Amino acid sequence: MIRRIGYVLMAALLLTSCGAKKRRTTQRKGAPVISNTESTASNRSKVTKDDGLYPMPEDTGRFERFPISDTQDYIETFAEIAQYEMRAYGIPASITLAQGILESGSGRGELTLKTNNHFGIKCHTGWQGEFDFHDDDAKGECFRKYNHPMYSFRDHSIFLSTRSRYAFLFNYKRDDYKKWAHGLRQAGYATDRKYPQKLIALIERYDLDKYDEEVVRGGLATVREPKNYEVFTHEVQKGDTLYGISKRYEISVDELRRLNNLNDNIISIGQILNIRRAQ
User: Fold this and answer.
1) Lowest mean pLDDT among 29-38, 108-117, 143-152, 229-238
2) Three-state SS for 212?
3) Is the separation of the CB atoms in 111 and 117 below 8 Å?
4) What is the model's pTM?
5) Of 32, 113, 147, 273, which one has the greatest count of Cβ atoms within 10 A?
6) Parallel, antiparallel, or unpaired for β 47-48 and 272-278?
7) In this structure, are residues 48 and 58 in contact, taking their beta carbons and an 8 Å threshold?
8) What percent of the chain has pLDDT over 90?
């Protein structure tokens, strides 16, 4: 089956050398007007270059929506783009897909339908793109809006790779989806304590890790260049204290708290802690 994303990328490779218009970015002063226009093949063929990576669709100013029937359709539509993001940024394709499925309701959730936001990324300070409001942890929260689903996938990669609190994730093996799932929760991506288990369950139910394996077999290094320390996790056992763990792994309590976004020294049995130890 030829994925719909595949049509975009195939057309992109043919048109990139001809040049393209620059993407338009606008900052809305109020709630955006949502277009009901569905994506068409002709719209998807318009592309532009993107920082030396694979070509992205041109932002025509129209809201392009990909109708998705179910989770399997979601995977077939976005698996290839998740693999391209893995090659470019090192985030496991399985994690990207699982987060997309979970956060967007397989592309059919209310927020995603009106914003193309597949990863539940809020506006945050400095966001200058379009936005819309949606009830989440609080009523009427500001969420980023994209005119094309692929912009959401790219922004997800940039979001994780440019924020210091997620930096430790990129020292895991790029195909170790379990560590990535636990690490995302520890870094504060989601407040749901079962977030890692939900991601892992989706990956294993739909065999999403096969997309990681395909990328790694294609020549992607599975680990980043050494940075003079090793990064791993510790599961809190009965009797563990933060001080005891710091002594065991020769890391300060302050560093442990910083790596795990802890406001105090309280830890619980089964909690996964990120550990960074100098070599």
Assistant:
1) 29-38
2) helix
3) yes
4) 0.65
5) 147
6) unpaired
7) yes
8) 43
Cβ–Cβ under 8 Å, residues 93 and 74: no
User: From CA 187, how far away is CA 200, in angstroms rounded?
Assistant: 17
* CA proximity to 118, closest of 175, 80, 74: 74
Interhelix angle 195-205/93-104, rounded to 10 degrees, is: 110
Q: Are 232 and 159 in contact (CB under 8 A)?
A: no
Classify 143 as helix, strand or coil: strand
Give the residue with greater pLDDT, 6 vs 22.
Answer: 6
117 CB neighbour count, 10 Å cutoff: 26
**How far apart, in whole angstroms, are the C-alpha atoms of residue 103 and residue 112?**
9
Element (H, E) at 272: strand 272-278
Q: How far apart are CA 49 and CA 55, in angstroms?
A: 5
- For residues 67 and 112, what is the distance between their CA atoms, to the nearest angstrom? 11
Quick: pLDDT tens for 153-183. 999 999 998 888 898 898 888 789 999 999 9
Taking the C-alpha atoms of residue 170 and residue 89, their distance in angstroms, rounded to an integer, is: 9
What are the angstrom distances between the C-alpha of 125 and each of 100, 110, 128, 131? 23, 24, 9, 13
Instruction: Calculate mean pLDDT across residues 198-203.
Output: 98
The SS3 assignment for 144 reads: strand
